[in-house]
Amino acid sequence: MTDSAPASASPADGGPAVWLTLPEVAERLEVPVNKVNQMIRDHALLAVRRDGVLRVPSELVVNRTVLKHLPGVLTLLHDAGYNDEEALRWLYEPDETLPGKPADALSTGRATEVKRRAQALGF
């Protein structure tokens, strides 16, 4: 499997450093591509178009699974009216009070705080 990093996905702009195509995500999760598409439709996984291709930030898919709290956070963000691009921006916006970015905090003990903040966006 090859991790892709298109030119429009610079880590310097606060976004993900490495992107995966849907077939790469399917390979990593050991599921068919149509299952990955269903996960995206169900807001269990986030994908956005980069260079004309749907891509997923690689750090959201680790150890053959999607980050544990990601589906809940994505549901909260979509309920607050965020589209996928806005949700991506929110997840990768640096937040000194976490510290770091919400996407980074999801894989640490700060996932509950990330969910609380996402929920507060709806009010």
Automatic annotation (TrEMBL):
Pfam families reported for this sequence: Rv2175c_C, Rv2175c_wHTH
Domain of life: Bacteria
GO function terms (MF aspect): DNA binding
Residue stretches making up the DNA-binding protein Rv2175c wHTH domain: 19-60
Residue span, Rv2175c C-terminal domain: 68-122
Protein name (record): Transcriptional regulator
Upper taxonomic lineage: Bacteria, Bacillati, Actinomycetota, Actinomycetes, Micromonosporales
